[in-house]
Amino acid sequence: MESIKDRIANLARAMNKKPEMDGEYIDYPTLRKQYEQQASQDIQALQQRTKQERIETIHGRSDLNPKWTFANLIEDSDDVIEAISIAKSFIAAHDDPSWRQSGSHMMLFYGDYGRGKSHIAGAMAHQLIEQYEISVLYRQLSTLLEMRYFSYDYSAKDNIGEKFREANQELLDVDLLILDEVCVNETVLKKNTQSWLGNLLRQRLVNKKNCILITNHNLQDLEQAVGRYCFESIKEYDTYKVRFSGPSRRTAVSQEDDPHSAPQGYQPNQIK
User: Fold this and answer.
1) Does the pLDDT value for residue 184 go beyond 50?
2) Residues 51 and 175 in one domain
3) How confident is the model at residue 77 (pLDDT cuts 50, 70, 90)?
């Protein structure tokens, strides 16, 4: 008949543990402590793997450009430096549960093309996903409006109406919604579009969901473009307005080396 010592030794061998230390018998409390420590390490490793899988899933659904990170930003002007400071303060505020529960927060990035608005918004989103597992959705408003328009085609065979309803629900549910190109090339949105966007923002406000809006308009033109109802929805948020006024970061398209370029007297789409 096996002794207690033999049983413990057999159990230890079955679990790939060593019941002896320096040739001495290990008592049960010590052995139990070792097993508990190993179990704790295994649980922590499993939790870390599970967390990483959740983060990867959020990244996959966010539709963010993977190159939009703080590491890739060039701090070459005062507006970018200030915007990064505000962005990092916004991220750090998520450490405070009372701040997160206090209401809905909105960052409004406005300025001309190529100033880094989308990049900084994306960098914020990537960090919020990594640190806090915040669900994020990046969408261009014009793409959503096209989908919304085609959803009224009841003769369509591609289930566009159902797809838009699913997309609209996702816009309501996600923790952080980034709407880019708001009113791009639009002086005034149609009335029903203004109402739809205003209602979307108000529903997110009620549910304490945060937003980042990115536009090329100044604030006065944006109010005219989205309409008063929608702009009042924006003002209801705890809003952080960030103006981008520095130089464009996009590479200029030079005509010097292009043999097919137009004559110098003609400059299409020139902004006055």
Assistant:
1) yes
2) no
3) confident
- Higher model confidence: residue 91 or residue 39? 91
Q: Are residues 86 and 214 in the same domain?
A: yes
Residues 129 and 52 in one domain: no
Beta strands in 88-206, from DSSP E residues, in sequence order:
105-111, 136-140, 176-180
State CA 207 to chain mean position distance: 17
What pTM was computed for the model?
A: 0.74
Rounded CA-CA distance 136/178 in Å is: 8
- Residue 41: per-residue pLDDT: 79
Residues 53 and 117 in one domain: no
Sort strands 20-21 and 136-140 into parallel, antiparallel or unpaired. unpaired
49: its two tokens? 């793997």
Q: Would you report the helix, strand and coil content of the chain in percent, each value rounded to 5?
A: 55, 10, 35
